[in-house]
User: Fold these one by one.
Assistant:
Number 1:
Amino acid sequence: MNLTIAGTGYVGLVAGVCFAHVGHTVTCVDIDQKKVELLRSGVSPIYEENLEAFLKEGIASDLLHFTTDYRSAYASAEAIFIGVGTPEQSDGSANLKYVATVARQIAESVTHDCLVVVKSTVPVGTNDKVEQFIKDSLINDVCVEVASNPEFLAQGTAVHDMMHAARIIIGVESKNAESVLRSIYAPFNLPIVAVKRRSAEMSKYAANDFLALKISYMNDLANLCELVGADIEDVAKGMAYDERIGSRFLQAGIGYGGSCFPKDTKALEYLAKQHGYNLKTVGAAVAVNTSQRTVLFKKACNRMITFNGIKVAVLGLAFKAGTDDLRESPALYNIPLLLEQGADITAFDPVAEENCKKQFNFSMTYSPTVAETLQGAQICFIFTDWKEIKETAPEEFKRLMRTPLVYDGRNLFDPAAMKAAGVEYYSIGR
Ligand code: NAD
């Protein structure tokens, strides 16, 4: 089929390359000229495993194209997927201005009947508004329907998640919309759950916020474990055997980050409030996460007399391993606190270093290896679960650091092994 994708971020680009991979003809539109030029040359502006290989394959097979010219890209597409950002606003609500711009551009451009598919995460009822807005603004005499198709991929495993999704949720109000979406997804051979648009929109928040809740629950328990002498890792091990609970997302740590959980929890809380309802569970997940982000810093403040002039090793900047995305990363909440107190920071991240340099003007040094970062450090903070960090031998902390004092926000090491190696080691809930 002839598909167009609006937005070449984590969601739009991954959808574009995967649709081309299964044989659709895809045009990806972005307003960022530099990004489009980079993509045309086969280089991915974001890091995701296999993304660049799929990108090159799509370009070589002439099934995948990139443009800033939205008019020609939308004009005769059979389906247009909207994958632009819906960032958090200061009141917690989702900012729909990018979605609205694309809707207007579609209305001005389409010359054939088409299905508009909202992949961006949007508050319940947005699809109705997008459909009405497009219908009201159409220039040509064509029929445009809107369907919801929330995306469930996780950064770090985005291409794999798109190709092997647990399910595809489609929110449709007509047989035609359902049949177009079923045809698009047929080559993926994945379970399709067809529901009404509002239920599809809600499913995305329901799933993300449930995962956020699970993480915050474990972090809340982890803090209690420390007070009562239990080990959250052992507790989680025991819980994981229970099929009603499941074994994933039981990892205690320094809190969730990224572009989705923080904003999607707040957006659902906001939506509930708008309807006069207090969504207490999600509110609690947000509150726990906010304090969890700085739990290690607070612990370290109790141990250190000052950070002024202290050589600090920061291991990990990205919000999780496998991505170069820094959005809402716990590291970003801790680095300013340390700098404010005069810390002399050296930071390591295998892929997010460039993004950090570009986006933030932190007065700190970057280092290409864990060993170099630890060299001479007086305290170390671990913020991301990168393999390169996890695979560092406990003895290396002892050998390289001036004082082997480690605060681990990802529970990457066995406390007994760290102790045996002579490292003073603090982690979460143990
Ligand atoms: P992103 O910020 O990485 O990318 C958005 C892209 O849209 C940018 O490249 C931007 O230049 C482009 N854009 C903005 N206006 C445009 C326009 N008028 N026309 C064409 N392109 C335009 O965003 P993302 O992380 O891919 O997220 C997109 C949506 O998907 C959000 O609603 C998000 O909540 C949701 N989502 C994200 C993830 C994730 O892991 N990142 C997972 C599931 C769902």
Number 2:
Amino acid sequence: IKHPLQNQWTLWFFKPDRAKGWEENLREVICFDTIEDFWSTHNHIKSASELSAGCDYSLFKAGIKPMWEDPRNKNGGRWLINLDKKQRSSELDNYWLEVILCLIGEAFEESSEDICGAVVNIRPKGDKLSIWTADCTNRDGIMKIGQKLKESLGITTRGSIVYEAHNDSMKKSGSVAKFRYTV
Ligand code: M7G
């Protein structure tokens, strides 16, 4: 008997193709709802650090698309971790796995309800990890998730993780979005 997860999760893959629109470049890879199915997926796909520049993996609760426009995301935001280039070889894959295990294991307890998914962006200027939550005004839930995230990754630097509302990310023109919370 396989071990059921509390939620069903969908893994998405984004591969940049300039000839296509952003959403067209987003593909559903697989849906799983047991620990065993998670590991067999994880063990046969490329690790995040092996992806080419511009690609993303996203893991979202089934039924939520990994985009700002989804009804479950549109009032939400993300905890964002910016990694240094050198962390791709040292930290990226471990961090991403840890984030996934927190999500599918419902490690955020009562705040797990607020979780929509997580994204890893592979970028030449520095990779990014984020956890997307549903409501950018739910301060308590957001802070609990942020603290748990930092703790799980063993990040101790104060103020190193910022939460930004998708509404701000959407509007940002080149520069950094106005963040709302930090841990
Ligand atoms: P990114 O891939 O999140 O980060 O956004 P990057 O700047 O490090 O590459 C790059 C661009 O992709 C954005 O400026 C948008 O044009 C597009 N994009 C990203 N996201 C997450 C979305 C989304 O949720 N919806 C739409 N419509 N476009 C998006």
